[in-house]
Structure formats: structure tokens, C-alpha cells
Design a protein that fits this description.
Blueprint: E1 9-20, E2 26-33, E3 43-49, E4 52-58, E5 79-81, E6 87-92, E7 106-112, E8 116-122, E9 126-130, E10 133-142, E11 160-167, E12 172-178, E13 185-189, E14 198-205, E15 215-216
Antiparallel strand pairs: 1-2, 2-3, 3-4, 5-6, 6-7, 7-8, 9-10, 10-11, 11-12, 13-14, 13-15
Length: about 220
């Protein structure tokens, strides 16, 4: 049938990447055909009740939180879905600000009915893991298996996300994210206290929260 938000129709669905919550809302990965579909835009994610789906993200569309990168193929990518109808997924980005060595190509995104689609974390970003200790994201691993209450093991019903992280240093960690903190703002490390931050060392500040000590909103150091 017709694929909402496109001029195409659904060809088939990836049955290993789908979700159904307690409110009867679906999250599906669809593969498209027809219309203006090409191999560069023939996959996407939809959420909604049966017969009333809305497009969340489509291959080839601009990826929020990037400088011109677009979504890659969604087929076979990890996806989580909870009873708040929030979706979390990984994607391999293309074009735009993706570096020639592809070291910042992998990213985690989320979609919420209240706030829409947003970037959660991306390879190449730096995070403070202890006071004065910074690590750079390499890869992520989200747990797609279910808990006994039917919730994805890595995404609680209240929007708290947990993901493993492989840092560039080869260290590993576990990162938790409150999806309800969006929209967040960026703050940049001001190591010398001159009021100007380093654009290569950032942290995300929860909406309405104070900028942490040692960080500023300016990135022009």
C-alpha cells in the first residue's frame, strides 16, 4: 500500500526490526518501490496505528544535528521502541560532514511524538567520562532484546536509554541518555578560562539546565 510521507508504496517490511507497544502503536522499517524511489532512498522508519502511519526518517533525507549528512540504509539497522512511542535507531550517514575516513559516519538518533527527530550521539564526538578525562565515541551498541515486561532492554518506558560505547582509545563504557531532555544545547570545553570553547570537545546540556563548570556556549577558541 501507499507509504505515508512519500510518493512510493511499500514493497515489504523487515520483520526483525519492528515494534508494537501497549497502546497498539507500531514502529516498522519499510522498503519502498515506485514513485521517485531509487536505491538511495528506498528504506525508512514509520510509526503509528495500523492504517495511520507517519514517516519518521527516510534514507537520503537530511540527518538532524549534522552539517549536510543524509541518512543511509535503514534495512537491518538496530531499532528500539517503547510504550511512550519513542524510537531509537542507529544509522550510517552519507555525504555532508562525513569525514573521508568515515570515522564519524555512525550515529544514534531518536524520535519522540512530542519533539520529533533528533541526534543522540555520533562517532567522533567527545564526552567527559570523569573530571578532566575525555573520550571520543567510536561505535555504539543498543540492546534490542526485551525485558520480561516487554520493554526493550536498552530503552525504558519513561525514555531513559542505555547503550554501550566503544571509544577510540579502545576503552569501553556504558552511556545513559534521558530522551526527554531534548532539545539540548551544546557546550564547549574552555580549558584556559578565556570564555571561548574548543569546538572539538563538546557536551550536551539538558534543556533548561545550567552549563557545567569548565564549559561555555561559544565554540571559537
Amino acid at each position: 500500500g501507499p507509504a505515508p510521507g512519500t510518493d512510493a508504496v511499500f514493497r515489504f517490511f523487515n520483520t526483525s526490526t519492528c515494534g508494537l507497544n501497549d497502546s497498539g502503536i507500531l514502529a516498522i522499517v519499510g522498503i519502498l518501490t515506485g514513485g521517485s524511489t531509487t536505491t538511495s532512498n528506498n528504506t525508512g522508519i514509520w510509526v503509528g496505528a495500523a492504517g495511520s502511519l507517519s514517516l519518521v526518517a527516510r534514507q537520503g533525507d537530511p540527518a538532524p544535528g549534522t552539517a549536510g549528512a543524509t541518512f543511509g540504509n535503514f534495512n537491518g539497522r538496530q531499532m528500539l521502541f517503547n510504550d511512550s512511542s519513542q524510537v531509537v535507531f542507529m544509522n550510517v550517514l552519507e555525504g555532508g560532514d562525513v569525514l573521508p575516513d568515515h570515522s564519524n559516519q555512525l550515529a544514534v538518533f531518536a524520535w519522540s511524538p512530542a519533539t520529533g527527530l533528533f541526534l543522540v550521539a555520533r562517532a567522533g564526538e567527545t564526552i567527559e567520562v570523569a573530571p578532566g578525562v575525555f573520550e571520543t565515541f567510536g561505535t555504539f551498541g543498543i540492546a534490542t532484546v526485551n525485558n520480561t515486561d516487554g520493554a526493550p532492554a536498552g530503552l525504558r518506558h519513561d525514555g531513559k536509554l542505555a547503550t554501550t560505547v566503544n571509544f577510540r582509545s579502545q576503552d569501553w563504557g556504558l552511556m545513559t541518555v534521558d530522551l526527554n531532555c531534548y532539545p539540548s544545547s551544546l557546550a564547549y570545553r574552555d580549558a584556559d578560562g578565556d570564555g571561548f570553547g574548543d569546538s572539538g570537545t563538546i557536551t550536551h546540556v539538558c534543556h533548561g539546565a545550567a552549563t557545567p563548570a569548565g564549559f561555555v556556549s561559544d565554540s571559537t577558541d
